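ERR on first pass: missing label on line 2. Operator R.T. fixed the label and resubmitted. Corrected input:
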Amino acid sequence: MPSFLVLNGPNLNLLGTRQPDVYGTTTLSDIEADCVTYGTEKGISISCLQSNHEGELVDAIHAAKGTFSGIILNAGAYTHTSIALRDAISSVELPVIELHLSNIHAREEFRHISYIAAVAIGQICGFGAAGYRLAIDALLGHLK
Ligand code: CA2
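pass 2 clean. output:
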């Protein structure tokens, strides 16, 4: 059975509590529960982790090697800054889908740059919480 890690970065623990106009009203717990439910329907084991700390995200990516078939990563603001996350992804050689709730290309210019994009198999952005299901389908399709 394939197993996916759904990894969320800084401030995403605040989802559903503030800025609903940008990030929607769904909480991270809702999203994580829905990922597990959708994974079960598709025959995928899903584990979820959120951290506000760059090094913990790096550790989670390293630990995913040998445990998970792939990673769905919303790196939050670290997307636009973190060479460490990019290097971690390159080092584990696991398929990674870059995910964002908002359309980062339609927002401030600093969000148009992603250090993750070049080492991800693809990017999903702008579909809100529904993007996580899209990412599960995309990762599953990639592995088949
Ligand atoms: O659109 C996304 O998913 C982002 O990864 C979210 C990040 C942002 O820095 C990226 O550019 C795009 C920010 C997450 C902050 O989440 C909050 C949720 C509720 C209230 C405040 C922040």
